[in-house]
Design brief:
Length: 133
């Protein structure tokens, strides 16, 4: 999990990470408002900033290598936090927080309705511009 002051830094990091061909099984983005909802719903205290959730797959050696590359990429985009799961329990806790996002959004607006969706953007597009629309 990696948080940034601005969403552009997060999306630029994703583009670079994709160019490296890292072994991602998931990349998820929660904006600052979503992180505020997650903190309220989960009673957590993560930075209420744009946050990326990464999941790497492969052999232990592949994951370790890719995680080292990912951490270096993150540093080049000046993250405010980088949380690396060291154990299976820590991994599951981070993804539990991410999976609570829909319920957390509902908690921000009681009585509101949530819609769960994904979107795809061509690699040639500027992700931050697509998200801002």
């Amino acid at each position: 999990m990696c948080s940034f002051d601005v969403i552009d830094a997060a999306t630029e990091m994703v583009v670079e990470a994709m160019q490296y061909g890292l072994s991602f099984s998931h990349i998820e983005l929660a904006d600052a408002l979503q992180m505020r909802g997650i903190n309220r719903y989960c009673k957590s205290d993560y930075a209420e900033k744009p946050t990326l959730f990464f999941d790497l797959t492969g052999s232990d050696a592949t994951v370790e290598n890719d995680l080292a590359v990912l951490e270096e990429l993150a540093r080049s985009h000046q993250p405010i936090a980088f949380t690396r799961a060291q154990t299976r329990e820590e991994y599951e806790a981070l993804w539990k927080i991410r999976h609570s996002a829909l319920y957390a959004a509902g908690a921000l607006k009681p009585g509101g309705k949530g819609i769960s969706t994904d979107f795809c953007v061509p690699n040639s597009a500027r992700y931050s511009a697509c998200i801002a629309r």
